[in-house]
């Protein structure tokens, strides 16, 4: 079946396979970037929560 195909058939098959590979590669890269962004935003959130907690503790001790 593959032996009797014209040259453009091979190019079409190669294009389909290459396109699938690039979609898979891009989706993996985007997933990594999303996970890094989520991790960075989580660290920012945790720092802000710690600062807020310290401010509350400081204000409590200041009142007493």
Describe the protein.
This protein is mainly α. It is built from one helix and no strands. It has one helix spanning 7-63. The protein is rod-shaped, with a radius of gyration of 27 Å. The N and C termini lie far apart (88 Å). The mean pLDDT is 94. This is SigE-dependent sporulation protein. Keywords: Membrane, Transmembrane, Transmembrane helix. It holds the Pfam family Spore_YhaL. The chain crosses the membrane at residues 6-24.
Features:
about 60 residues; mainly alpha; rod-shaped
Total number of β-strand segments? 0
Terminal CA distance:
88 Å
The oligomeric state of the chains shown is single chain
Shape: rod-shaped
Instruction: Report strand %.
Output: under 5%
Describe the main β-sheet briefly: none
Kindly state the mean pLDDT as a whole number? 94
- The residue fraction in helices comes out at over 70%
What structural class do you assign from the helix and strand content?
mainly alpha
Low-confidence regions? none
- SSE string: H
Cα-atom radius of gyration: 27 Å
Count the helices. How many? 1
In short:
By secondary structure, the chain is mainly α.
């Amino acid at each position: 079946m593959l032996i009797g195909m014209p040259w453009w058939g091979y190019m079409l098959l190669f294009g389909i396979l290459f396109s699938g590979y690039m979609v898979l590669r891009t989706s993996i890269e985007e997933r990594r970037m999303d996970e890094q962004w989520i991790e960075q935003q989580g660290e920012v959130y945790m720092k802000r929560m710690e600062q807020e907690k310290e401010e509350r503790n400081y204000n409590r001790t200041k009142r007493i």
